[in-house]
Amino acid sequence: MEEKNIEQQIIQVARQVFIEKGFAEASMTDIARCAGISRTVLNYYFRTKEKLFAAVFSDIIHDFIPRLKDIALSSGPMDDTVSAIVDIYFDIMHKEPRLPLFMVREINRDATHLFATLKELDTWKYLEILKQRIRQKMADGEIKRVPLPFIFYTFYGLMVVPFLTEPLVELFVGNKVDDKLLMPWHQHVIDSIHQLLAVDNEEYGPVRRSTKELECKQGMKVLSN
Questions:
Q1: How many Cβ atoms are within 10 Å of 88's Cβ, its own excluded?
Q2: CB atoms within 10 A of CB 151
Q3: Alpha-carbon distance 219 to 179, whole Å?
Q4: Is residue 64 very low, low, confident or very high in pLDDT (cuts 50, 70, 90)?
Q5: At a CB cut-off of 8 Å and minimum separation 6, what does 126 contact?
């Protein structure tokens, strides 16, 4: 097997082990065993668990970095930026539904370690650019002055709730958490952030409604029937 294929195999196996057990409980020995290789071979490709952890994170978000870069460097209106960012994160979580639980566990276990890992990735500099864009648009009066933690709580809280509570929702409410449910929720997240940031004047607000938004609202009516 080619070296690149072995490296990718290790990353895919480590991804599942890290998500299932968390960084602290996952061991390099576990990962080597699950990958069907020796610990010596694993150490050849990744000398430390921290380097493997960073490689797993990079693999998860690799396909989305170009999209995030385009959004960060765009000069378009903030409502378009919000919609695009929510699209990206929903795509990530849709592909790996256990990722939100893993992230919450890691934040509570050692937020400093998770933060340091994220800062090593290209994604971080684009998130910093977005943060500065938000502050500038607040200063220019294009969006409401809102504490940045409020934006983070609204975005991250609404994004992860369907994935964190999936078993409870299916048992208690009786709804299966599938695309039929997630599509209108996806738009609900966008609407909520738009409302949070919308300024109360004729020049800048309210935010415009897209065809996609109207279609998703129709989907919510179907779910409520």
A1: 16
A2: 17
A3: 11
A4: confident
A5: 65, 68, 69, 71, 72, 73
pLDDT band of 15, cuts 50, 70, 90 = very high
Residue with tokens 């504490």: 147
At 86, the amino acid letter reads V
**CA atoms of 21 and 103, how far apart (whole Å):** 12
Q: How many residues does the chain have?
A: 225
- Rounded to the nearest 5°, which phi and psi values hold at 140? -80, -5
For residue 100 the two structure tokens come to 């939100």
206 preceded by cis ω (within 30°)? yes
CB atoms within 10 A of CB 42: 22
Is 21 within 8 Å of 38 (Cβ atoms)? no
Amino acid at 160: V
Please provide the average confidence, as pLDDT, over all residues in the chain. Answer: 85
Q: Quick check: 154 pLDDT over 70?
A: yes
Report the alpha-carbon distance of residue 175 to residue 181 in Å, rounded. Answer: 8
Cα–Cα distance measured from residue 61 to residue 92, given in angstroms and rounded to the nearest whole number: 7
What is the SS3 string spanning 70-96? HHHHCCCCHHHHHHHHHHHHHHHHHHC
Question: Which are the contacts of 3, defined by CB distance < 8 A and separation ≥ 6?
Answer: 45
| 3-class secondary-structure state, position 158 | helix
Selection from 54, 15, 45, 47 nearest residue 31 by Cα: 15
